[in-house]
Every structure is written in structure tokens, then in C-alpha cells.
């Protein structure tokens, strides 16, 4: 949280309270704010401080401080900017990351705040009234380097400044020329066009001509002749000579130095770096060659930190390092991923995780501290796509795939792999989304075949569907929203699974309805619920969940003390789907009968603490280049849709899932190749965030991005549908021809094969209540399945899944099974006939409650309400007994729980 001491400049008060960029400049040895209208205008004779504040999805603010030093800035101003950056860090709680930026050598993170570029202005900043740049307009030649963040530099307006490798902009009073060296990349040319547009709008008021000149192409174009005439006529550009400038020293090893309070650097001799080497009372320098890090212990003072910074700057000068050497300043606890990557055994960074009931309190704390926090994000997010479409499921069995009947398609086995094709209504066309679901106990060969089979099906499907590879136990929420009601059994039906268990001598755990089984019930809503078979041992229980336990004689539902009413509703609905005629024994945690513990092999320890919800991580976008034996990853900061360059392969890292985006003009030939890139990215774990190789991987193709992907951008569908390479697209936009570059919808779809996907798709059906519902899978017509009309209803009256989850006859519940009455132990003369069974003794409500000072014994604890008299029943439940029993069972149980009768 922000705080201020006497040592901190009062002009910094309130800094970082809102998201966005704030800028200050050193003027007359004072820190003065730069108005927002002047953001992005930097004078080469001045020094600046830039603060960027981002409000993370977790609700906490993240701050980055940069101090920018113009090439002509006074040394005293540069030193003061460094000191003021430290003061700002302290004002923000010493949790920022600070960067030293030198004109012409800025970091890409800094440049990302001022897209498309910054073009430094000669002179010195002035905050006085009426300050206007009085420079007369003059012809300038600029060079543009970089295919993401563009470094723009003014060079002498002479022919010798031109070369074959770079892109140049010649800015004249009436026309802007873009000259592209023959060795420059398409991406560099496209980015330079963004700079051209920036100059046109900011220096020409949007009114000037634009001409693109290709190096080495001499056509009868008047623009080409006009361009060369400005240089005194055409002459060949000489071949580029080897750079004669000083090179950065080649440092093969990373070195760690301790910085004394007197500013002396003492190298720490070690072969392996570990966090334990860093003392909170000291400052250190990590020398990585092209970049230096200064690590400042949390217990160090501002004076010690200023001394450390001066010592490092002296080190750079004495070693002959480039003045543009990047220096990053880190306070203990705010280490960047790049810094942590140089250390072995760096503890995994733990992000703050909040309980649901604490969200309001945390938001209030941030507001009280001056942060503009409206509310913290909700745990449950609505589905990103329409979840009432058509679903088809195939089971993978070695070299074959078999279409599963609709009645069975929501029953998965951990030893098998499945392919799911989900067809839904998009904004402008019918869309397809494919999943390869890999069971955690499935054979490696089946997993590989699942990806291969899915790729074959996708190739025969119209359009360019998005595909995903997911592993059991790591399913994304969207998958569960599509499957809606999913049951995952142990065992498998695959030949390879059966063969593997036989070869290893492992018992086949495949559920057949007769074995004892324990299911954990989970989910977000009635449209998103799962029953997952777990080991039938007490350690599988968790106080945060509800469970269903089936034995050969009984059926139990177990409610953990930390489970919610919603969790208990899901159990009731799962039981209704399995077999609504069975009467389970309802058990609360702490009141389990011996029969339950015996079925689980005896009572034992299990997790009893509340499972804490992890916030959705803020996404990061990366470019990925994969060549033989080399895989390079580079982050794109402050990304937008415009960063999705058609020649590239990008990865959007959302921590819980990643998206591999494939540009139309990239060199990726198949979805399988894209999955390989996704796995390489997970292995690299560039942010040191502990990514698992089982993280879900989506593959998304340009122009066919689903809402799952576009939700992370301010999306413009017209941009996504343009043809041509990135340079041609930008040039068309500049010349007002963007509309002509749009591809017709569906124009590039592949031929639709009826062999692999043999059924015509059906649109969303509409139920009797007028609400759109999931259509019956077209697969049913192929397999000759006959489905009743009730299968079209979604959840208003859920039909049971054909084929019982717990096969065989109804379980024996003792004296209470099948609605038979409990034995009458009390000799009270009053009896009552309920709809659940006749002749039950009547007891007062106060004795029937779960928590009672004088509890009744010997009753059926799952039907406490049946022991109430009719009069007291209506008084307690505010309805008649017959009205109560007309309610769905899950509603009855919820009502009983609210009255302490369950």
C-alpha cells in the first residue's frame, strides 16, 4: 500500500492510485507532472519518470517505474531522476520494478506504453504557460527497427544513411515516403507503416500523401523518381559492411556481486545461484552481460539503494559497457521472471488467493488506500460460447474411433481417450470446436492416436475449427459447460488399456455397476456438474466437496462441512440423473455411520481445510519461433489485436490454459505441429509460473478465432478477416482500401466431407417453454438410436441417464430402503402416515433439529420432517405436507437444510 514519509517528494502523493501511465519530468531540479496531452513526447535534453499501473484480476495493483534519460540530458538531472524513482518506489510500498531507459536503447516494455513509437524531440521540456515547439517544419529521415516494439531514430538526411537491412521513413512537408530495405522483414515494414500513420496524424494533421518505395525495384512510378530526386538522383546503395562499432562483451557466465554500503562491488564465487544467497540487509548486482540487475533487500534504506545504483553505473562506465546497457532494479519480493530464471531452486511465487467471503473486505481495503477498485472478480464466469449446440463424441480404440450413442456420450473412462466435436451458432456462421480428452490412465499410444484422429476429422470439416488437447483432471471450465453433465469412471474400454493392466498384473478397475465406488461431485451450476470416481478410501474425502458412495448394500451421500448449498444441490441432481427412485442415506461430515467407514476401509485422515479459489491469471502474449534444435520465446507487452501478425505463431498464456494462435501466412502446416509448439512453450515456462505439461492447449487459426480467444482482446472482426500479408493490410488501411482486403465469409472454408462427419448438423432446438436447448446429436440417426422427446429438455425436468450409474437392483438401505418406514422405538401414542412411509411417530420440531439440546434417538435422520405433526409441519415449512412432497428432491433437501432438518 502507498505511504509517504518526509523523504518522499510531495508531488508523488497519490501516484499509482489509478490504472494507467503517469509521467513527471525534471525541470530546474524539480519534479513536475507532464500533462496527458504530452504523453509520448520526450525531449532529448530532459530526464523523465514514468509510472505504469496495472490492476490485476486478483484485485492488487502492479507498478512498473521507468526513468528515461535523454541523450542530451544534464548529468545532474539524470541523477535526480534516479533518486526520485527510488522515492516513488518507497511511496508505493517498495514493491515496484524499476528500469533505467536510455534514449535509443529503450526496453520493449517501455515502448509498449506509447504505441506505435516515440520520436524524441530536440530541446528541453518546459511546463511554463504557452510552451509551443516553435521548430520550423523540416525534412527528416528516420530509421525504424523492430517487428514488435519499434525503435525510431533520426539519421542524417543523406544517401549514405540508407541500407538494405532496415526500413526508413522520409518525412517531407507534403508527402511521407516509406523505403523498405530488400533484406527487411514484412513485419518490420508493417510496423513502420504504423509509424507513418502516427507521423501523418501528429505532424501533418492527417493530410498528406503516402508512398511506399521498394529497395531495388525500378518501375515507372513517379513516387520512386520523386524519392530519389530528394537525394540528388538515384545511385546504388553499397553492400552493408560489418559493423565497426564496439561490441558488448561476451560474458558466458552470470556473476553475482555484493554491493557494500561504501559502494564497493565484491564478487561472490559460486557455480550455482540460489535465493538463499541474497540477504535482506544487503544490495546485490547480477551481471548477465547485456543486462544488469540490482537486487535490493527489503531491510535496506533509500541511502543504501542510491549508493548501490551509483556503484553499478560506475561499473558500467569502467567496464566500457554500452551506455544503453539495460539496468533493472528489484526490491526483495518483486523479482521478475527473468531475474528468477538465473537462480536454482527459487521458491514458486505464491499469488494472493482470497476466500469468497473475503472479497468485499479486500476491495474495501484497496478503496480506503486510494486504489480505484470497483469490485473484485467473481469466481464464476459465464460461458464464452453458446452451450446449447450439438455434441458428438468418439472413443479412441487403437487405430479406430467409434461414435458413442447420445445416451452414453457423457460417460467417460479414465483409461480411455475421447474426441469431442461441438457445433454451435457463432455470430456470423456455424462454428466447430474439437477437444481431445486424454484419460489420466490411458495408454500413451491412445493419446497420440487421439490427436491424430482428431486432426483427420478436423481436416474434413468445413472452416478452420479450433481444437484443444486436455488431460483428465485439468479440464477448462468451458469444457465442463459444454459437456454439462459428465460422469468419469475408473478403468477403460480400450484394447490397449486392457492389455496394459493384464501385462502389469493390475486389477481391472473398470466400473460395472456392481463394485463399491466413491464419486466426488463438483461443478459450478446445474449446467456444469461432474461426478468423478475416486479411490474408495477415506483419504479421498475433502471437507470442501460432496460425495456419492455406492456399496453392494447401501447408497450414501456425504456432505463436507465446507461444502456449499450449491454443492449439495448438485449431489441431488446427480442422484436424480442416475436413478431418481433410489433412496440414499444422507450423511453430514462428522456423523458418519460405521457402515460408511467400513466401505472406505476404515476411518482416516483427509483434507479438512477450505480449498481456496485461485484467481484467473492475467494473460501474457508471446511470439514463438521454432527451428531445428532451437525454440525462442519473446513476450509482447500491453498486447492488442494488432499484435496478431499473420506471419507469426503466438501463444496466449492464461496460466490455467494456453492458446496457440496460427497466422495465415505462418509456416505451421498442421494442428499437430501447433500442439508441439504448445508443449515446447509449457516446457520453457518462461514466466517461471510452474506451468504443468498437462495444461490445456487450444489451437486457434487466424480468421476463425472463437470467443474463447477473442475475449482477451478488444476485438474487431473486420481486422481478423483481412487477406494479404501484414504489410499489404496496413498499406490498404492507410490508403482507405481496407474493405477490399476483407475475405468473403466462408470463402476459404475447406470442402465438407460426409465420410468422416457423416451427419448433417442441426441448429439449436427450442423447447416447449421457448428456451433454446441442446439439439440431439446427429449421430443418433446414424446409429439408429431412438430418443424420447424429453431428451431435448435441458434442466427444467432432467431426465435420467439411460443405463444406471450404479447397476443392479436397488441397494439395500436396511429398514428405510424403498420408502419403508423406520422402526418405532419411542412408544408415543401418536402416529402419522407420510408420503414416504406409514405409521411414523410424532416428535416436536425442537427435538428433531440436527442441533438439539434433547435430540430424539432411533429415528431415520434422513427423514426428520416425517416425524412432525401436520400442524407443526405447516408452521415450520410454511406449506402443506402434500405441497412439500411435490417439490423436486433437491429443493426438498435444500429447504430441510435451511431448517436444520438435514
3D structure, described in words:
With 902 residues, the protein is α+β, with helices and mostly antiparallel strands. It has 6 domains: 10-118, 3-Layer(aba) Sandwich (Severin); 140-231, Severin, CATH 3.40.20; 255-342, Severin (3-Layer(aba) Sandwich), CATH 3.40.20.10; 395-600, Severin, CATH 3.40.20; 620-735, Severin; 845-899, Villin Headpiece Domain, Chain A. It is 22% helix and 23% strand. It has 21 helices and 36 strands. Strands 2-1-3-4-5-15-14-13-11-12 form a 10-stranded mixed beta sheet. It has a 10-stranded mixed beta sheet with strand order 17-16-19-20-21-32-31-30-28-29, with helices on both faces. The protein has a 7-stranded mixed beta sheet with strand order 18-22-24-23-25-26-27. Helix 11 (565-578) packs antiparallel against helix 21. The longest helix has 18 residues, at 186-203. The radius of gyration is 34 Å and the shape is globular. The protein starts with 19 loop residues before the first strand and ends with a helix. Mean pLDDT is 81; it is low at 242-251, 350-368, 373-379 and 746-839.
Amino acid at each position: 500500500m502507498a505511504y509517504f514519509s518526509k523523504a518522499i517528494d510531495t508531488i508523488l502523493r497519490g501516484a499509482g492510485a489509478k490504472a494507467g501511465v503517469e509521467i513527471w519530468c525534471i525541470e530546474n531540479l524539480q519534479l513536475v507532472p507532464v500533462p496527458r496531452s504530452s504523453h509520448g513526447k520526450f525531449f532529448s535534453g530532459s530526464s523523465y519518470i514514468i509510472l505504469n499501473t496495472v490492476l490485476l484480476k486478483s484485485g492488487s495493483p502492479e507498478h512498473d517505474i521507468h526513468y528515461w534519460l535523454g541523450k542530451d540530458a544534464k548529468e545532474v538531472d539524470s541523477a535526480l531522476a534516479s533518486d526520485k524513482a527510488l522515492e516513488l518506489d518507497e511511496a508505493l510500498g517498495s514493491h515496484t520494478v524499476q528500469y533505467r531507459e536510455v534514449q535509443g536503447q529503450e526496453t520493449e516494455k517501455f515502448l509498449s506504453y506509447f504505441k506505435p513509437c516515440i520520436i524524441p524531440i530536440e530541446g528541453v521540456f518546459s511546463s511554463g504557460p504557452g510552451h509551443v515547439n516553435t521548430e520550423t517544419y523540416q525534412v527528416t529521415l528516420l530509421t525504424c527497427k523492430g517487428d514488435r516494439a519499434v525503435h525510431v531514430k533520426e539519421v542524417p538526411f543523406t544517401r549514405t544513411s540508407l541500407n538494405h537491412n532496415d526500413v526508413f521513413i522520409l518525412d517531407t512537408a507534403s508527402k511521407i515516403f516509406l523505403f523498405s530495405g530488400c533484406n527487411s522483414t514484412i513485419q518490420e515494414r508493417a510496423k513502420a507503416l504504423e509509424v507513418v500513420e502516427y507521423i501523418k496524424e501528429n505532424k501533418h494533421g492527417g493530410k498528406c500523401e503516402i508512398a511506399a518505395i521498394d529497395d531495388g525495384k525500378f518501375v515507372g512510378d513517379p513516387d520512386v523518381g520523386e524519392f530519389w530526386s530528394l537525394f540528388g538522383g538515384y545511385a546504388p546503395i553499397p553492400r552493408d559492411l560489418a559493423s565497426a562499432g564496439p561490441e558488448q562483451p561476451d560474458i558466458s557466465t552470470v556473476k553475482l556481486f555484493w554491493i557494500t554500503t561504501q559502494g564497493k562491488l565484491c564478487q561472490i564465487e559460486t557455480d550455482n545461484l540460489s535465493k538463499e544467497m541474497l540477504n535482506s540487509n544487503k544490495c546485490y548486482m547480477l551481471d548477465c552481460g547485456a543486462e544488469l540487475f540490482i537486487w535490493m533487500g527489503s531491510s535496506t534504506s533509500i541511502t543504501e539503494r542510491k549508493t548501490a545504483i551509483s556503484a553499478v553505473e560506475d561499473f558500467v562506465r569502467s567496464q566500457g559497457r554500452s551506455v544503453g546497457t539495460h539496468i533493472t532494479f528489484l526490491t526483495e519480493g518483486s523479482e521478475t521472471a527473468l531475474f528468477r530464471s538465473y537462480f536454482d531452486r527459487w521458491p514458486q511465487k505464491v499469488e494472493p488467493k482470497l476466500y469468497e467471503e473475503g472479497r468485499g473486505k479486500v476491495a474495501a481495503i484497496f478503496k480506503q488506500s486510494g486504489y480505484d477498485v470497483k469490485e473484485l472478480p467473481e469466481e464464476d464466469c459465464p460461458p464464452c460460447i453458446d452451450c446449447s449446440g450439438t455434441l458428438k463424441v468418439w472413443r479412441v480404440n487403437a487405430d479406430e474411433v467409434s461414435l458413442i450413442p447420445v445416451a452414453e456420450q457423457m460417460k467417460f473412462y479414465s483409461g480411455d481417450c475421447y474426441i469431442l466435436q461441438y457445433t454451435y451458432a457463432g455470430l456470423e456462421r456455424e462454428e466447430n470446436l474439437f477437444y481431445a480428452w486424454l484419460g489420466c490412465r490411458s495408454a500413451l499410444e491412445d493419446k497420440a492416436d487421439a490427436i491424430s484422429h482428431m486432426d483427420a476429422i478436423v481436416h474434413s470439416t468445413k472452416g478452420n475449427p479450433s481444437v484443444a488437447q486436455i488431460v483428465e483432471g485439468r479440464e477448462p471450465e468451458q469444457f465442463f459447460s459444454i459437456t454439462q453433465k459428465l460422469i468419469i469412471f475408473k478403468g477403460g474400454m480400450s484394447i490397449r488399456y486392457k492389455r496394459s493392466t493384464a501385462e502389469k498384473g493390475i486389477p481391472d478397475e473398470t466400473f460395472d455397476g456392481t463394485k463399491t465406488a466413491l464419486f466426488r461431485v463438483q461443478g459450478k451450476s446445474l449446467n456444469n456438474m461432474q461426478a468423478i470416481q475416486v479411490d474408495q478410501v477415506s483419504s479421498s474425502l475433502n471437507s470442501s466437496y460432496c460425495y456419492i458412495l455406492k456399496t453392494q448394500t447401501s447408497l450414501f451421500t456425504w456432505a463436507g462441512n465446507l461444502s456449499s448449498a450449491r454443492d449439495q444441490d448438485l449431489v441431488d441432481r446427480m442422484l436424480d440423473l442416475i436413478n431418481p427412485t433410489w433412496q440414499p442415506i444422507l450423511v453430514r461430515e462428522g456423523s458418519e455411520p460405521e457402515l460408511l467407514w467400513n466401505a472406505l476401509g476404515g476411518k482416516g485422515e483427509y483434507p479438512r481445510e477450505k480449498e481456496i479459489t485461485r484467481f484467473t491469471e492475467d494473460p501474457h502474449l508471446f511470439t514463438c519461433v521454432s527451428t531445428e534444435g532451437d525454440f525462442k520465446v519473446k513476450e509482447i507487452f500491453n498486447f492488442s489485436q494488432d499484435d496478431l501478425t499473420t506471419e507469426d505463431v503466438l501463444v496466449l498464456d492464461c496460466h490455467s490454459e494456453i492458446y496457440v494462435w496460427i497466422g495465415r501466412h505462418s509456416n505451421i502446416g498442421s494442428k499437430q505441429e501447433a500442439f508441439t509448439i504448445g508443449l515446447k512453450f509449457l516446457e520453457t515456462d518462461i514466466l517461471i509460473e510452474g506451468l504443468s505439461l498437462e495444461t490445456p492447449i487450444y489451437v486457434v487459426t487466424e480468421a476463425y478465432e472463437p470467443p474463447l480467444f477473442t475475449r482477451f482482446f478488444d476485438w474487431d472482426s473486420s481486422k481478423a478477416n483481412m487477406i494479404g500479408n501484414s504489410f499489404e493490410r496496413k498499406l490498404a488501411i492507410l490508403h482507405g482500401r481496407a474493405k477490399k482486403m476483407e475475405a468473403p465469409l466462408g470463402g476459404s472454408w475447406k470442402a465438407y466431407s460426409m465420410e468422416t462427419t457423416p451427419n448433417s448438423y442441426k441448429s439449436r432446438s427450442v423447447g416447449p417453454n421457448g428456451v433454446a436447448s441442446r439439439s440431439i446429436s446427429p449421430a443418433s440417426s446414424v446409429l439408429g438410436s431412438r430418443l424420447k422427446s424429453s431428451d431435448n429438455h435441458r434442466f427444467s425436468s432432467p431426465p435420467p441417464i439411460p443405463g444406471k450409474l450404479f447397476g443392479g437392483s436397488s441397494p439395500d438401505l436396511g429398514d428405510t430402503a424403498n420408502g419403508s418406514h423406520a422402526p418405532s422405538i419411542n412408544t408415543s401414542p401418536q402416529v402419522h402416515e407420510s408420503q414416504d412411509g406409514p405409521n411414523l411417530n410424532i416428535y416436536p420440531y425442537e427435538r428433531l433439529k440436527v442441533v438439539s439440546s434433547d435430540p430424539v434417538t432411533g429415528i431415520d435422520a434422513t427423514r426428520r420432517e416425517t416425524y412432525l405433526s401436520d400442524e407443526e409441519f405447516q408452521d415450520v415449512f410454511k406449506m402443506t405436507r402434500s405441497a412439500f412432497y411435490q417439490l423436486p428432491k433437491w429443493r426438498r433437501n435444500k429447504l430441510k437444510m435451511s431448517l436444520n432438518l438435514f
